[in-house]
Amino acid sequence: MRFPLGAVIGRFPFPSSSNGGQDQNLETGDVIRHGRKCRDIPFLVFFIAFLIALIVNSSFGFHKGNPLRLTHGLDYKGNVCGDKNGNPNLHGLGVRYWVNPNQVFESGFKDSHSDLEDFKSICLKDCPMPSNDTLKWVCNYPEGDEIRLSMEQWVSRDYDYFSFLTPDMRKSSLQLLGPCYPVLFPAVNVLWSCEFMARKSNASLQQWHMMGGQTVDDGMILDKTVHKSINSQSSVLKRYIADIGKSWPVLIVCGGIIPLILSVIWLAMIQRLVAAMTWITVVLFDILIISVTIFFYLKAGWIGNDAISPIIGHHDPSYHLSGRERVHLHLAAVLMTIIMAISILSSIAIARRVIKATSVLKVASKIIGEVRALIIFPIMPYVVLGIFYMIWIAAILYLFSSGEVIRDRCNANCCAYDLKMKQVNCERCCGHTIHYTPHIGLAIIFHLFGLYWVTQFVKAFSSTVIAGSVASHYWGHGEVLQEISFLPIFSSVKRLVRYNIGSVAIGSLMVSFVESSSRILKPLRKKLMVVDIKTHNRLGKVLSVSSHYTLVCIEWIIKSVNHNAYIMIAITGESFFAASAMATELIKNNILRIGKVNVIGNVILFLGKLCVSLASAFFAFLMLDTHTYKSAHDKVSSPLIPVLVCWGLGFVVATLFFAVVEVSIDTIILSYCQDSEEHRGTTQYATPLLFETLDDQNEVDRHDQ
Asked: What domain of life does the native source organism fall in (predicted)?
């Protein structure tokens, strides 16, 4: 049932003095009715339980994971290269090297029963290079009674203690069984794994044959085998996740600080240059999207000579490698070109309508000017989300690396000399791999859903608080004094936390569920389309495409309904579903009256968010182009994922701050519609500027028709 809102959220009419003490309480300027009730409590309890489960899930990752596993391989003992907690201590030894070239060559054949991971590898500081003067060796980690060297001495000797070997050990080493192995092929550090070049060192090979060494195979398979392992889909995915952790300063600066500064500047400018800000936003958006697209072309190698390279450190300039990351950048550059073309054409198409958005933004800027705390308030949800994102990103790094290291069971000839056993060992000599159990995948999915829900919850909380503050201003005839401009914010937060926090939880849950379902079903839909195309199944193709657009429509409708429901929750204090029904009815009854104004205003605000997020991506490209992230320990495999994360973080930050304007406009419009319906087509609480804006817009629409 509908009821007048003036007595709910606005100031009560000042009564005469004849009503006694009750009237005296009203004269204190109380603007909120105290008859509200706690709403949607079960959903609040469910949200709290979900947060507890998210903490437990993250704790599992922190306990089991090791982010070094995402980029560095395992040695023949099952240690992660570069891990200071390994046995032995491998701190600073982060490059994986396969010691036996014949085993690498064997694993490269398609009909081979062995995998490269089954064969012996060791962790070094850098990839060894053959010498033109003498034969170099790479020996096992020093251990046992025969080799009395520390790890530091082993490293200082360039991993070579061949001169200390007994005759039996030397004989075994000449058969490529260890404990020392010859360095016959040059190798290059490709993403912390040594990739052989298929050209032997003639001087080293000659000395090897003179010593009676076993025949060594060579060929193009030798260098392609390691590259194939490094370039696998699972390895690329792990490196992408690791790139997020390595570029954490970029995420803080470009995903947090820069969008914060730009958003505050935009809100400050819209109060003083509201007429020009719409045009500035459109032009700046076109410039930024062109700049970001050019950066994608640069990193993809289509423009200039600044393409990404998987090689780390110094190497032969004539030796070039290209991995799967470069292919992904090519696809991203093509996609950005399409988006850029559509965006520029769309911005040109709305140029004639921009003037309509200016009048609506003026109303919002007037309220922001009177309730100045609205500009400062988004800093609170910004800090909350910032802390949550830092913990969440750390947890996802550990979850993705929380598998169990196990020894493989292989049929390969992996015999190798064991320094402790003092003999060649052919049992339990296979390599190690990281085994991921199904529950780890479920934990990652749960963690990703937690990101969606918490983000939507904080955004909904912020929007509802802003809506309550603006509604107090509207239904109070704009009577908000400058010296108490923080009072509407504090009152709105208090009402929301006390009565309707559960309503925000259920609304954000609905959006999160639809968004996550869409992301999960997307890969399945692509596979179905491929099958349908191959089998010429038109019905399956139609169903696949229609399901995609159906999910998009449902997602958009739920977001729109939720946004307006939050506003009605702030105004009326009703439950989520009751507020959704009220908002839907109001919009349905006044769609022709407010539709165009609201749509154009939202388009300009959306372009403003994109400007902030594109600027974040642009500065992320600049930071990632420095020496720190292009070489050595902090090298990122590709700027793609850090840039996209900064883009997303920038958009979230911009959404929090732009909600001040966006929610203000929608709250004013919904309040205007409610005010008009309560008073039979006329408004008693609307300000002259708002009445003039909507009235002028209706006149323009009638003139156009």
From this structure: Eukaryota
Minimal CA–CA distance to 3: which of 570, 635, 677, 491?
677
Better-scored residue on pLDDT, 352 or 335: 335
Q: What is the mean pLDDT of the chain?
A: 80
528 neighbors 522 (Cβ within 8 angstroms) = no
pLDDT digits (tens, 9 = 90+) for 621-672: 999 998 888 877 788 999 999 999 999 999 999 999 988 888 887 887 787 7
CA–CA separation, 345 and 350 (whole Å) = 9
Q: Residue 622 CA to chain centroid, in angstroms? A: 18
| AA letter at 611 | C
Token pair of 192, please?
């912390």
Q: Is the peptide bond before 639 cis (omega within 30 degrees of 0)?
A: no
Q: Computed from CA positions of residues 218, 223, 226, 231, in that sequence, does the dihedral angle turn out positive or negative?
A: negative
Query: Exposed/middle/buried for 701, CB within 10 Å: 0-12, 13-18, 19+?
Result: middle
Distance of CA 322 to CAs 243, 307, 336, Å? Answer: 18, 10, 21
Over the stretch 486-511, which tens digit does the pLDDT of each residue have?
A: 567 888 888 888 888 998 998 888 87
- What is the pTM assigned to this prediction? 0.84
Would you place residue 17 in the very low, low, confident or very high pLDDT band (cuts 50, 70, 90)? very low
Say if residues 187 and 165 touch (Cβ distance below 8 Å): no
- Over residues 45-86, the pLDDT tens digits come to 999 999 999 999 999 999 988 999 999 989 988 899 999 888
Summarize pLDDT for 286-301 with one digit per residue, the tens: 999 999 999 999 999 8
The answer to whether residues 462 and 659 touch, using CB atoms and an 8 Å cutoff, is yes
Residues 6+ apart with CB under 8 A from 648: 255, 613
Task: Characterise 219 by phi-psi region: left (phi > 0), alpha (psi -120 to 50), beta (else).
Answer: left
Provide the token pair at 42: 């079960």
Phi-psi label, residue 54: left if phi above 0, alpha if psi -120 to 50, beta otherwise: alpha
Range 55-59 contact pairs with CB under 8 angstroms and sequence separation of 24 or more = 57/395, 57/399, 57/443, 57/446, 57/447, 57/450, 58/391, 58/392, 58/395, 58/398, 58/399, 58/447
Alpha-carbon span 556 to 455, nearest angstrom: 17
Angle between helical axes of 41-64 and 501-535 (0-180°, round to 10): 60
Count of residues in the chain: 705
CB 195 within 8 A of CB 180: no
388 burial via Cβ count (<10 Å: 0-12, 13-18, 19+): middle
Q: If DSSP states are collapsed to H, E and C, what string results for 236-287?
A: HHHHHHHHHHHCHHHHHHHHHHHHHHHHHHHHHHHHHCHHHHHHHHHHHHHH
Neighbours of 268 (CB within 10 A): 12
199 CB contacts (<8 Å, ≥6 apart)? Answer: 185, 186, 218
**Both structure tokens of 5:** 């809102």
